[in-house]
Specification:
single chain; alpha/beta; Nucleotidyltransferase, domain 5; 2 domains; 5-stranded mixed β-sheet; about 25% strand; globular
């Protein structure tokens, strides 16, 4: 049995997973993402610690590394990642040199879409959109059966103006990410309720329980997401939109208001199915492992 380590660097946590060749997640390890690590040194150190821990129990054939933002994937460079404060950082090579093993490198969202396209909620769809909602928001665009990246620039739906009122890490005000991300929802609830430390999971449970502040915040966030989806649907005509990331755990509590908005606003457009990711919040880990095993099979 071969093993790889899947590493997903997010704005809040670095998520590590030991995955076997049948794509079973054997073990997981999360570490808080270093803040303002503009050189990547602390991030690489944290990832190396995860890999080293897993390597004590199994022989690791390769590491899959996925990060947010705009990437130059062939060179392994993060061009820009607002939540990580990275600019033109050669993160893949920095990690490969530190751990001395092959590293597959890709965008976090497009990699999660690989898992959903190969064996998840987007399987058999020729045109689909995958949107994981976490600290940040982006989209993977599956067009004519292929994930399109436009040299790493495509899919930054989190920075579409949805008429929001909050400032975004990109420097603008009104972006989807600043209205509908898990971080945005938590901040909005904290601002309106005066309560601190309330997680998004707790907020959607409060929505179900009928908490008026939670419902107001939730409606703002889902309405913004629905407006962004309306744009994507009108332009790309997907058969299905798949939602992943931490917010996917809310299931129908998240999907229902978006579906109702689209049912009332779409006219001539093809109405896509709205689905929760088959792999839910593990889609990124599974897709990352798939890319790492692809690297192993290619003998690189």
């Amino acid at each position: 049995m071969n093993y790889v380590v899947a590493v997903d660097v997010g704005g809040t946590d670095i998520k590590g997973a030991l995955v076997d060749s049948d794509f079973n997640v054997i073990a997981t390890k999360n570490i808080r993402t270093p803040k303002a690590d503009t050189t990547g040194v602390e991030t690489v150190r944290a990832i190396k610690a995860i890999v080293t821990e897993f390597a004590q129990h199994q022989t690791i054939a390769a590491v899959g590394l996925v990060v947010p933002g705009t990437l130059d994937e062939p060179t392994g460079t993060s061009r820009w990642a607002g939540n990580l404060q990275w600019n033109n950082l050669p993160i893949r090579n920095l990690l490969a040199e530190a751990i001395n093993m092959p590293v597959a490198f890709s965008h976090d969202v497009r990699t999660a879409a690989v898992a959903e396209m190969r064996s998840g909620a987007a399987k058999d769809a020729q045109n689909a959109i995958f949107i994981p909602v976490g600290t940040g928001i982006a989209a993977a665009l599956i067009i004519d059966g292929e994930i399109r990246s436009a040299e790493g620039f495509a899919g930054e739906i989190g920075h579409v103006d949805v008429r929001g009122k909050y400032s975004c890490v990109c420097g603008k005000t009104g972006c989807l990410e600043a209205a509908s991300s898990t971080l945005a929802i938590s901040k909005a609830y904290e601002s309106q309720s005066g309560k601190t430390g309330v997680t998004t999971e707790e907020i959607y449970k409060l929505v179900v329980a009928g908490d008026p502040i939670a419902i107001h915040v939730w409606n703002d966030a889902t309405s913004a997401m629905a407006r962004a989806c309306e744009v994507l649907i009108t332009i790309l005509a997907p058969e299905v939109i798949v939602f992943g990331g931490g917010l996917s755990n809310a299931g129908e509590t998240f999907l229902k208001p978006i579906r109702e908005y689209l049912d009332s606003s779409l006219t001539f457009q093809r109405k896509p199915r709205l689905e929760i990711a088959h792999y839910k919040s593990q889609a990124g880990a599974i897709g990352c492992a798939m890319l790492a095993f692809d690297l192993v099979k290619a003998g690189k």
